[in-house]
Write a structure and sequence with these properties.
There is one protein chain. By secondary structure, this protein is mainly alpha-helical. The protein has one domain (5-386). 65% of the residues lie in helices and 2% in strands. The protein is built from 16 helices and four strands. It has helices at 25-47, 67-82, 92-127, 140-144, 146-155, 165-174, 176-185, 187-204, 221-235, 240-246, 248-267, 293-306, 309-313, 320-331, 333-353, 358-386; strands at residues 84-85, 88-89, 209-210, 215-216. The strands form two sheets. A two-stranded antiparallel ribbon has the order 1-2. The protein has a two-stranded antiparallel sheet with strand order 3-4. A hairpin with a 4-residue loop joins strand 3 (209-210) and strand 4. The protein starts with 24 loop residues before the first helix and ends with a helix.
């Protein structure tokens, strides 16, 4: 699979020199993106193992959004660098070819990891003599009705639980040329159109149906495109990104307030009853599928609070021991994500077969993160070898 890690900043993650030279501003920003994307990848790995003790330490336990919002936002942020060649905008035809090629790479990765996940579940069911495993994570349809379900997997209309983020990303990348072209005309127009689609989706509850199992996409692309567009618009230095930078102090204070309120609501387990809410109810719920406003606001609060923290922490020499591996994961996000998805399933199977507890969970966490880092390092080594 082709990798775009050379577009994601391959320099030293915490080198203070990166903030000095104007030529290195893009590298600095991308390293910061890689750092937080690396964190999101580990958080996704942990959160995809239900019941593991360490999930209570990821940021979703302390607020109203989780690593999925952060990951999609950063994907939109990175779109700016995928759509540019150094400091120049790519020609439309080159932009289309680059982004559609990326979408195809994501699609190939999705088909591969789903096939491997199904094989892992089948093998575990045989080894443990537990057919119940075949019903996990919406996989039962494949083993009970393989012909239509195989078609659904290829068409992305059948999605396994915990393997449903990449289909969203594939669709977003497929329409990314349109997003970029509108953004080149006007960032405000792009944001207004995207926000209108998001609001209309919340109002109408429009979503893409699944098949052959009746249902809808867990990550509603009509809603989640707004998160993607927010990242893209904020990455553009001459648009909203410049305004944000001028008022960073005030926005950081606002972000702290939002995060504090989110923490309080999480601690009291705030979850409004949808039957007691006014219509359109999705505007007032904490609904992940349709990306309710509270989730967007909380994620933006986190961004406002944490932006610049990377550069500040980079002055501490010991920070590099955390930053370097996280940036390595972020630079090789597709490979690390695919590995993490399969490792999360392996973690679920391990916790099912072995005695649950802190020891088992710690072993699952350490092996999983080490394997993700090994995959990321191997991919980076492969890329450097081919240069």
């Amino acid at each position: 699979m082709k990798d775009d890690s050379h577009l994601s900043g391959a320099g030293e993650a915490v080198d203070p020199k990166l903030v000095v030279s104007p030529r290195r501003v893009v590298t600095r920003a991308l390293n910061q993106v890689d750092f937080w994307r690396g964190y999101a990848l580990i958080a996704i790995f942990i959160n995809h193992i239900p019941g593991i003790v360490y999930e209570q330490f990821t940021h979703r336990a302390f607020g109203l959004s989780d690593s999925a919002e952060l990951f999609v936002f950063l994907a939109g942020f990175s779109l700016r660098y995928l759509s540019e060649s150094r400091s120049e905008n790519l020609a439309t035809w080159r932009l289309f070819m680059r982004l559609e090629a990326r979408a195809f790479t994501l699609y190939a990765a999705q088909i591969l990891i789903v096939a491997l996940a199904l094989a892992m579940m089948a093998a575990a069911a045989l080894l443990l003599d537990t057919p119940l495993i075949l019903q996990w994570n919406n996989a039962a349809a494949f083993f009970e009705s393989p012909v239509p379900t195989q078609i659904g997997i290829v068409m992305l209309t059948h999605q396994m639980g915990y393997f449903d983020v990449l289909p969203l990303y594939i669709l977003l990348m497929a329409v990314a040329p349109l997003i970029v072209c509108i953004g080149r005309i006007s960032s405000g127009l792009l944001l207004a159109l995207s926000g209108a689609v998001w609001a209309a989706t919340l109002y109408s509850e429009l979503n893409i149906p699944t098949w052959p199992v009746e249902g809808v996409w867990f990550f509603n692309p009509f809603a989640w495109q707004f998160q993607f567009v927010l990242g893209f618009v904020m990455a553009r230095p001459k648009s909203i990104g410049a305004v944000i930078e001028r008022h960073s102090g005030k926005l950081r204070l606002l972000g702290a307030v939002i995060v504090a309120v989110g923490l309080w609501l999480a601690l009291i387990s705030w979850s409004p009853n949808p039957f007691e809410l006014p219509e359109p109810r999705l505007f007032f719920m904490n609904d992940k599928t349709s990306l309710s406003p509270v989730r967007v606001i909380h994620m933006l609060g986190l961004v406002a609070l944490l932006v610049g923290l990377f550069d500040l922490a980079g002055r501490w020499r010991g920070f590099r021991y955390l930053a370097v591996p996280l940036c390595l994961l972020g630079r090789n996000s597709l490979h690390a994500f695919c590995a993490g998805s399969l490792l999360s399933l392996a973690g679920q199977l391990t916790r099912f077969a072995a005695p649950t507890g802190l020891v088992t969970d710690t072993i699952v966490l350490l092996i999983g993160v080490a394997a993700m880092l090994a995959v990321a390092w191997g991919n980076e080594w492969r890329i450097n070898l081919s240069r």
